[in-house]
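Reminder: ligand-aware prediction takes two inputs, not one.
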Amino acid sequence: MDVQAVATQPFSGQKPGTSGLRKKVDVFQQPHYLANFVQAIVNALPAGQRRRLVVGGDGRYFNDQAIQLILEILVANGIAEVLVGADGLLSTPAVSNLIRQSKADGGIVLSASHNPGGPGKDFGIKFNNASGSPAPESVTDAIYHQTQSITEYRRVELPAVKLAVGSQYRFLETTIKVVDSVADYAALMQQLFDFDRIKSAIAGGSLDLCFDAMHAVTGPYARRIFGDLLGVDPVQLRNCTALADFGGGHPDPNRVYARDLYEFMMTEQAPPLGAASDGDGDRNMIVGRGAFVSPSDSLALIAQHHTSIPQFAAGLKGVARSMPTSTALDRVAQSLNLPCYETPTGWKFFGNLLDDGLVRLCGEESFGTSGDHVREKDGVWTVLCWLSILADRRQSVADLLRQHWTEFGRSYYCRHDYEGLPPDQAQETLEQVLSQRDSLIGSRCGSMTVADVNVFSYQDPVDGSVADNQGVRVIFDDESRVVYRLSGTGTDAATVRVYLEQIERESTRQGQDAIVYNEVLGRFANHIAAIEARTGMAEPTVKT
Ligand code: G16
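Here is what comes back for the chain with 1,6-di-O-phosphono-alpha-D-glucopyranose:
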């Protein structure tokens, strides 16, 4: 078994985005493309941090071939131990947990998250550090730097490594262990939540769940945790067989792509709680019977009712949200006398806050929420938070929402995505808003007056690092907002994301549909960025 030094050249475009490197799968299938990136990850690892790595993915098309190649490169580079999920499957939060529990030096996650999978569709790879967190920008910059100067990678040709649970292999200096994809994660959930309490509420008929795994990685987790451990009827666990192409669907848990679940939850037959998760199991959608919960509201309500969640029995210490996420969390934090941090989009920005114990709960408008138990957002965990709240409060989701809005005001919130734009045109929309700053200030949208237009920059309070240019904000006198930024997770053309937040403090006006309520603000946002004038798009591609 010989270690080969394979001559290679840098590829352009290997700069990680919001969450690692995401490209069309045929880009990854080019000779040397994936190998270069994996070697770059290894090269960027300090010498003392090559002891143990975790490898797993969401099972999408090319997952198995990518894992075989990654193992060949890790063995050739002398990594002492590699833990791989059975069949190559690990949800993103499960990778984070496994890194932490096994005290690994990091992990390689194969996923393009909520993006479609299959031939011609999307693939992705990212590196998580020893705390289980997506690598911070200093590390992704170092990896990128390596990709741009690479001249060779090390590889050893291995027999096809069968990823059956419990298998163990020894190649050269490396031990490869194949671990149960669900067991450690399920055990962690049992420590964090009161399973007996939730289970008896389900058995007693006061609580129930319908979960849609969207033919993605959370299928086996849902069957074990919701089905076997909590007693949810298997019929209520939908699309739980993980498929390489997600059944041809788009594994993004929102009202557009999880439409069947959403519509079912709007009927009289619906159980108290409905939920869905995405390709790699980090995103979640929460819907009560007849009541959609926006991700920003879900985060704020989890904070409000944190005493119903055993993990947070000792209190929250602090909370955090990404900048475009609604300010509902801030109002709850204020009432609880807790600091609330505002970070750029990207889970990696929460890592330092969590590691330093400054926050215990964080979330994003992009259907992501999590606590300090891992360093990734966590879809199944969020469902368990909601099951805990419902079991404890004995109120419906709709009642909890109404109560929250009455007490804190309602942030009517939605996101308009303009997809498929040439990158220059997308960038120009943001510049258009900024260039009119002076004339916009004082202008009106309905009863609201623009008070400020600015660009969000963030200084990490732990390590002092600065992230500039993290979105353009138009802020109104009543704290309502429009935020513009470019997506960092797409694989081809650019997407402009326009985030709309309007705060309604009058309880008689809090019961409308957010998409309808935000319509006028959405048109204002399109107009001031000259989106229609520039692109011909009067309407966004997707509203969530
Ligand atoms: C990733 C990041 C999230 C971010 C989301 C949206 O999620 O982990 O922190 O909010 O992308 O990114 P963008 O607006 O740049 O497309 P995921 O679930 O795709 O890994």
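The pocket of 1,6-di-O-phosphono-alpha-D-glucopyranose is lined by residues 18-19, 113-114, 282-283, 345-347, 364, 366, 368, 487-489, 497 (CB under 6 Å). Residues 184-408 form a domain with the Alpha-D-Glucose-1,6-Bisphosphate; Chain A, domain 3 fold (CATH 3.40.120.10). We will return to this case in the review session.
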